[in-house]
Amino acid sequence: MKILSFNPGHDGAFAYLEDGNLVVSIEAEKHSRYRYSPLSVPDVFNVLGELKEVPDVLCRGGWSFSDTHFSEQQVLAGYHGVSNSDIIVGQKRLLGKMVEYFSSSHERSHLLCAFGMSNLPKGTQCYALLWEGVIGSFYEIDSELNLSKLADVMPEPGHRYALLYGLADPTFDKSVAEFSRFSDAGKLMALASFSKRSKPSDEEEEIIAFLMQDCLHLKPKECEVLRHCRHYNVGLDDPEFRNFAGIVSNKIFDRFYQFAESNMKRGMPLLITGGCGLNCDWNTKWKETNLFSEVFVPPVANDSGSAIGTAIDAQFHFTGNPKIDWNVYSGLEFIFNDAFDASLFDEYETNYAIIADMLDSNLIIGWVNGKYEIGPRALGNRSILASPFQDSTRVRLNEIKQREQFRPVAPVCLEEDAVRWFGCNHPSPFMLYTQLVSTDALSAVTHVNGTARIQTVSPVTNGHLYELLVAFKARTGYGVLCNTSLNFKGRGFINNIADLSAYTIEHNLDGFAIEGRSYMLKSSTNYQAYLRMPNTIAGSTKKVPETLQNQFSK
Fold first, then answer.
1. Which of 125, 128, 341, 397 could staple 139 via S-S, CB 3.0–4.6 A?
2. CA dihedral 175, 176, 180, 184 (to 10 degrees)
3. Cα separations (Å) of 194 from 189, 218, 247?
């Protein structure tokens, strides 16, 4: 069965399943579009370009009726609802053919996405935690895949978490905003790691009570009642606010943990989904509770996975199969045919040893291979890579990314070396958990609290990146690199050579590599210095492959 699914609004995406396989997931924010974008006409043509024939089923994910035209409400499921009675089925005409039509709630899309992408076999009973900007609830999933809500533990956990950042940020106009800023949750996650105390002051207790009050929607303008508090508009560099960020983060987690400990059976699996599933500290805490036999978080825990979840829901409805085969690299291929000024670059065939040599010489390089990653985390196909040893590299990467210096940079590591450097004795391929760093040598990827948000790589999960890490280890002894996303500020991954060229020039990358070819920026002082170094591949012509000698002798 061929299923085409779409989530048109926030974090818009298309997903296409064919006989239980995820063929492609196209996210609206990719191709350097604004983060959290809705679908657009180019996305429609992109997904049509991936189809070989008309699908059997067309799916639309549910959403709030307040954001939906009245004429659509009869054929569109809502935001909430987990029962089978909330599903809408019918028929639609698509490309001259009558196809099945399916719509189910946004809530179901998250839960089915997590179950369908997990390794849990069909029929496995489990728990699920859906926490995001709006929903904060636990569920039980039985052997027939019936979903039942155990409790609404806290409405809007993601919004309340992010609102703390806005409370302290004087640039956030709390008087006019209806909701917290989408980007603030990730920033607060970084700040929370700076915390060095666990006991709140009396004034901070007042803020905690405000943020965790029992109401369906907490409006930013209601923060006005906290104007007398020292944390109000204090700025993000204030050390006491950073201490408080960690306290609030723990308080929100503890609200959910206390429910789980008191009301849920030990030893069942837990699925975690929703935007809060991208909080690596919280994911790690759930594993460390030992309440659950295993914990699974999909790499598309946020709304970017909603279209996949609705497609899985439809597949289950029509075929009885709730499971899919998938690969995290299921986006679109990189576009080479756009125009860019090649005269600004030294272009040549390359290999892993040469790229490793450049990285070891402190060059910072864009790295592109195959299809882009689904979800918001760069996992080695649309990445910026750098050496992991110097804190100055983290500083430069944050300057390149045009983001705050308190933001950490994540490591990518050979799977077999993860236990040595990060105490991680299992695969962690999606950058969803934190690990304690066990050496002082990896300063660029070690956060202020001594942890790192690790991605492990094997020959199976990403062969090209694995071989590069092997080459880097051969030079340095460490199969570890800095890995951050290749994107303009506030936009999704770069996916064409024109954007990549412009980014390299505007943001001071030293060059980029695309599947066996390197494009090094001639005006880069770091690159020119590299060419003159005596102990590098470039500096010793006897080490240079014959095809590169002319390039390096220029």
1. 128
2. -80
3. 10, 26, 10
